[in-house]
Automatic annotation (TrEMBL):
CDD domains in the cross-refs: AAT_like
GO MF annotation terms: pyridoxal phosphate binding; transaminase activity
Keyword flag Membrane: no
Required cofactor(s): pyridoxal 5'-phosphate
Gene3D superfamilies, sorted: Aspartate Aminotransferase, domain 1 (3.90.1150.10), Type I PLP-dependent aspartate aminotransferase-like (Major domain) (3.40.640.10)
Enzyme class: transferase
Protein family according to the UniProt entry: Belongs to the class-I pyridoxal-phosphate-dependent aminotransferase family.
EC number: 2.6.1.-
Keywords: Aminotransferase, Pyridoxal phosphate, Transferase
BP term (GO), one: amino acid metabolic process
Ranges of residues in domain Aminotransferase class I/classII large: 34-383
Biological source species: Liquorilactobacillus vini DSM 20605
Name recorded for this polypeptide: Aminotransferase
Amino acid sequence: MGNLLVSHLKKELSLLQPSDIREFDAYASKIPGIIKFTMGEPDFNTPEHIKQAAIKSIEQNQTHYAPSNGTLELRKAAAKFLATKYQQNYDPTSEVIITNGATEAIYTALTSILNPGDKVIIPTPIFPLYIAITTLNQAEPVLVDTSHTGFKLTPKRLQAELVKNGSAVKAVVLNYPCNPTGVTYSQAELDQLAAVLKGKPIFAVCDEIYSELNYDQPHASMVKALREQTILLNGVSKSHAMTGWRIGVLCAPREITAELAKVHQFTITTTATMVQAAAEEAFKNGLNDSLPMKAEYQKRRDYLYDKLTALGFECVKPQGAFYLFAKIPTGLIQDDQKFIYDLAAKAHVAVISGSSFGPGGAGYLRISYAASLENIQEAMRRLDKYVTEQRN
C-alpha cells in the first residue's frame, strides 16, 4: 500500500516527470562499449591553477560560512570578468549573487518573479529545467516552437505571444548559445527583442552559461539593450570545465537583486567557501581558460556536422555551446525516443531525443560533442553502419 501522504504533496509535482535525459543516460551507461554523447558536461578537467586555489583555501581553514551572496572577492572577480569580456557592468556589492550553479540561479530568478497564474514565454526546444521550475511555481509555461524560424524567437512572434497572453506574461526566458540547438543570437536580434519588451512589466531571464563558447561571432547579450529588465545568469561550469564545483552567477539591477537574495538565502544559505575561492581564481586568472577548449570543440563541431549531413541528417550548424541538433532522415525510425534506444542497442552510440526539449524537438537528436574527437570518429563509423543497415 502506498504512503497516503503522497496525495498531500505539492500538487504541481504530479505534473512533472523525472528527467528522461538522465534516465536514458543511466540506461545507456550499462551497455558495454557504448559511446555516449548524452550529457552537457565538458570532457576537459578543471585547470590546475583553479584546483590549487581550492586546496590552498582548505589549508588556510577557509571552511566556515561565506556571506550569503558570496564572498566579496568572488563577486568582484565575477563582475570584472563580465565587464571585461562582455561589457556587462554590475556593482559587485549590490548586483551580484553567487549561486549553487546556474541551476539554482534559474530557480531563484523564476521563484522570485512568479505568482500563481503568471505566464512565462519559453522558446523551444530548450533545456527543460525552465519549464519545470515555472510549473512548480504554479505559473504557466508558454512554449513557443521556434523550429520554423531557425530555432530563434523572432520579434514578430514575441509580440504575438504578448498580445495573445496579455498582462499575465511575467517573463521571457532566453538561453544563448542554446542548449540543445547550439544556436545563438546576434546583438541586432537581441536588440529587436528588447525593443518589444522595453517599458513593459516583463523580465528577460537570460541564461548565458555558454557565453565563452561562441564560435562565429562575439557573444551578444540582452543586458546591453535591456539592462533594467534583465536578470542575467552565468557561471564557471562550461567556461572553466567546473560543472561539479557548482558555482553560478546571478546579476540584476540593485533593487531586483535585493529581492532575489531573499529566495537565494532561504534556499541554500550560501555556496561552499573553498569552492568560491576556486571560482575567484577562475575569474581572476583564467580569463582565457576557455580558448583551448573552444578551439577543440570547434574542430569537433565541424567534423561532426560534415559527417552527419553526409549521412542525410539535417542540421543547423551550431554557433556556440557544444551540441548539435540533428533531424532524423527519412527511412529511419522517426520517433526520436524509439530511435535513441534502438541506436544504443544496435550501434552502441547514445544520444538524446529532441522531444526531451519541448515543442519543435520531435524527430530530432541532440548530440553533445563534449567528447574526444577519437570517440566522435568511432561513433560516426558506427552510425554510418547503422544507417546503412536500417535503410536496406
